[in-house]
Amino acid sequence: MAEREEIVREAMSLSPEDRLYVADVLEQSLSGGEFRTPEISAAWAVEIQKRIDAYDRGEVAAIPLDASLERIRQFLAVRAKRP
User: The whole model's pTM is what?
Assistant: First the structure.
């Protein structure tokens, strides 16, 4: 299987929320780092603020980058082994 087909297959196995995140990141990479529409930009601004507020209230904890990347690698490795 071609690498890009595998990436698409893995991306499609993500939750709708995570697929939206991936789509937005890819869109930003194609549009010079800016969101394509003001609505997307506004929605992300709201989401970012919600996450910051939750962190400030102690409702969520930060995860060190190295630990986060390792969790992602483990997740993808498990997914890659599935038929």
Answer: 0.47
